[in-house]
Amino acid sequence: MTGVEAFRPGADDAAVLALRAAVWGADHPHADPAFLGWLLGPDNPAGPGGGVIVRRGGRAVGFAGLCPRLARLDGRDVRIAHGLEYMVDPALGGGLAGRLALRVAAGWAAAAREQGFAFGINYPNENSRRILTSARLGWRPTLSPRLMARALSGFGAMEQPTGALVRLAARLGLSLAALAQGGRAALARRPGAGAALTLDPAAPRDARMIDALWRRVADMRRVGLRRDAAALGWRYAAHPLRRYAILGWAVEDNLKALIVTTERALHGLRCLMIVDALIDPSAPEAVRALIAGAAAGAARGGGALALAEAAPGCDLARALAAAGFVATPRRLDPKPFMLVTLPLGEAAAFAPADWRFAWGDMDVA
Fold it and tell me: What is the CATH number of the domain that holds 45?
């Protein structure tokens, strides 16, 4: 078995994709070469990605990807290292696989520290979380977002909820009545001025509006990923596998809020997912109007459920609650997420309230 080596984007892609197929199956969407090329390629405004790889007998048996991200921390711009795609060949067996997982994670941290990143972020699964937050590696549990949901039947999608929706609501521990009826009065209130529009981060006028909104709100939280036009364009408009809509509410050229949406199938239901947002606190009704418009459009298209992940108490969570979304009990969340962080160049510790979080901060939704 080789030592921990630097991953070379492009040259090592085939080896990593073969390992990914062994871990998660060849039919997983992220087994597509285009996804890896986007995630760790040169078009990221924060710079090309990297990571570490371990080989055995000429094939990859361990990997951890590093995606650079631009962020704001205490009023200044920093580069942070997003750890993702951690994987070890399942054929190695328990003891060897566990030791290799530690080597890969330690090698990733050493590489990120050497490259001068301020800190690391990761949204690991339960197995990886135990390893990363061990005393040896030192990642810190930082934030546990909540899954929030509401039925789209309140927007005229269906007279009676389908059996699939009833079963899913029960699985999530949610009252279907609460899902359907909450927040209608709030959604009915439209802003006094302005209009909704679809934003293209590559269009100069739209980019200027997005950047101006970002500058106004960037430092309202202590820390968070950058959400200017370049960052949103790479994360959403340039995604090779998924289609996202970036929707804004503007008064003339003054953008008051934006949300990012996508649609997916979940347990046989068409679902609207709200994966990102920027909200000017002086115009909270603007984001409610965007949520209402997106929900109505999804309902007309046959959508059954709207979903979002939000940090408790943040501006997006408040807007979602006003729009009738209710939080899933943590114990029933089918895929609970946790943000863990690793001090690198910065020694700062983070509290949950420090973070500007959105579902799209992860490489998956």
Answer: 3.40.630.30
What element of type H or E holds 256?
strand 254-266
Which of helix, strand or coil describes residue 22? Answer: helix
- Extract long-range pairs of 176-183: CB within 8 Å, 24+ residues apart: 176/151, 178/326, 179/149, 179/150, 179/151, 179/305, 179/324, 179/326, 180/150, 180/151, 180/153, 180/154, 181/154, 181/324, 182/150, 182/324, 182/325, 182/326, 183/150, 183/321, 183/322, 183/323, 183/324, 183/325
Q: Is residue 355 part of a domain?
A: no
Can you give the pLDDT at residue 363?
75
Residue 156: the pLDDT is 43
Residue 174 lies inside a defined structural domain of this protein: yes
The pLDDT value recorded for residue 153 is 66
Range of the domain at 217: 146-336
How far, in Å, CA of 282 to CA of 213, rounded? 12
* Bridging pattern class, strands 76-88 and 326-327: unpaired
Amino acid of residue 37 = G
Q: Decide if 16 is inside a domain.
A: yes
Tokens of 290: 């965007």
162 and 119 together in one domain: no
String of DSSP letters for 29-60: GGGSHHHHHHHHSTT-TT---EEEEEEETTEE
**Domain tally for the chain?**
2
Asked if 138 and 171 sit in the same domain, the reply is no
Say if residue 155 is in the same domain as residue 93.
no
Question: 200 and 188: one domain?
Answer: yes
Of the candidates 278, 244, 238, the one whose C-alpha atom is nearest the C-alpha of residue 264 is: 244
> Mean pLDDT, consecutive 10-residue segments, the chain of 365 residues?
88 96 91 95 97 95 98 96 95 88 96 97 91 95 92 54 60 56 51 89 98 97 96 97 97 96 87 96 92 91 91 92 85 84 87 92 78
Q: Which pTM value belongs to this model?
A: 0.91
Asked whether residue 342 is domain-assigned, the answer is no
Q: What pLDDT does 164 receive?
A: 61
The tokens of 362 are what? 């992860």
Same domain, 192 and 105: no
